[in-house]
Amino acid sequence: MVRPKVLLMGPMPYIREQFHARISPLADIVELSSRNMDELGADMKSKYQGLVAVYHFRDPGSYFGFLGEPFFSKLPKSCKTLCHLGAGYDDIDVHAAKRFGVTVTNTPGAVDDATATTAVYLIISAMRQFARAEIACRNTQWKKQLPLARDPEHKTLGIIGLGGIGQVVARRMALGWNTKVIYHNRKPLAPLPEGYHAEYKDTVEELLAEADIVSIHLPLVAETKNYFGKKHFDAMKPGSIFVNTARGGLVDEAALLDALDSGKLHGVGLDVYADEPRINSELFKHPNVTLLPHMGTETWDSRNKMASIVLDNILAALEGRALPNIVPEHL
Fold this sequence. Notes:
Blueprint: E1 5-9, H1 16-23, E2 28-31, H2 37-43, E3 51-57, H3 69-72, E4 81-85, H4 94-99, E5 103-105, H5 112-128, H6 130-138, E6 156-160, H7 164-177, E7 180-184, E8 198-200, H8 204-210, E9 213-216, H9 230-235, E10 240-244, H10 253-262, E11 265-270, E12 289-291, H11 300-319
Parallel strand pairs: 1-2, 1-3, 3-4, 4-5, 6-7, 6-9, 7-8, 9-10, 10-11, 11-12
Helix pairs in contact: 5-7
């Protein structure tokens, strides 16, 4: 009888000993060695035979950077679960997965603190122009040609998408920098967050007209592709800040560059891009833009928390229990 297998599509150095100790009694752990779809199909009948669950790590630069119908069609009927290390899963066609009987799980909550820390850093850097100042230091320019910046204290922070990450950002900015928090969701939160006040705005346009800082925290799905465009940048206050730690595809990059070229924005902070790992070189021409290479959860602490959730879902799949973290499209 073929022993069940768990396929690792990506590195798993996080909680490594615990991961192997708890899965090994139930299944063999095999690492992906297939280099293309043809090899994957052949390997499913040999080295991956008996596959029950797949662990998936986001790697936009790899051959398997996006998992769609060609991938899911190669999985055996024994494989019913794909466990993604991350909250966002736009690199997985969840509808194709569902058609082939594969349930996708993710790691909500575990990413909130680290991604919020990244957003707060980008807000502060964009307001105070710290990235620009560091470049000046490294180029031995001291403060030459550094314009005066702005303080974040007592400004109005507009959150588009006040979910888990957005709420951590809002709380930290409200309590740490006394910012007024306004937000727009599809509907007002109930109950309201504790510890700070957040004022609901019925439309994004209302939020943009008032916010000194705009931070976007939406999932990337078909309906939100290029969600934030020219009309939104036009509606922002002159001298305001725009920050994106969610997904690059949420923002019309050409409209963002136009807003920068026009001088409308005081600063921008980006951790995500439309075509990762490529960054549009036009952004490099704007010293008031702080750029990070998708650093949101690049910490051992967060990755360990995320891996623990992945482990819980894989164990549930192997033991025939209900999966604890199914993505909404599969509920």
